[in-house]
Amino acid sequence: xxxxxxxxxxxxxxxxxxxxxxxxxxxxxxxxxxxxxxxxxxxxxxxxxxxxxxxxxxxxxxxxxxxxxxxxxxxxxxxxxxxxxxxxxxxxxxxxxxxxxxxxxxxxxxxxxxxxxxxxxxxxxxxxxxxxxxxxxx
Length: 138
Fold this sequence. Notes:
Elements: H1 6-26, H2 45-53, H3 58-68, E1 70-73, H4 76-84, H5 89-105, E2 119-120, E3 126-129
Antiparallel strand pairs: 1-3, 2-3
Helix pairs in contact: 3-5
């Protein structure tokens, strides 16, 4: 099957990568959860679902999320919806454990009712860590 928009898709991917790099570089003065390479992008919930739907093994998805250092702010209902979309229990367990570890290291994340320490992703989910780092007050 021939794709007619492959050039446009490549341009969009390069633009998204450039934007992520710019965001990472601009947040360099913020505290980060762990030192990360600038090349790592946040692993969004949408990406986790797509990888799961395409049969990527859970250990590869978890390794990708671990390298990116992304922390997820999801409700039990949202986790249940992910499970229905094919995200494995191992991946969901890692997402929950990463948040619990971050909350132990940065207690303000757990008490952040106004979501000041979190970033709203393009897909409507809340994230922390990764290239964004954490706000210095967190």
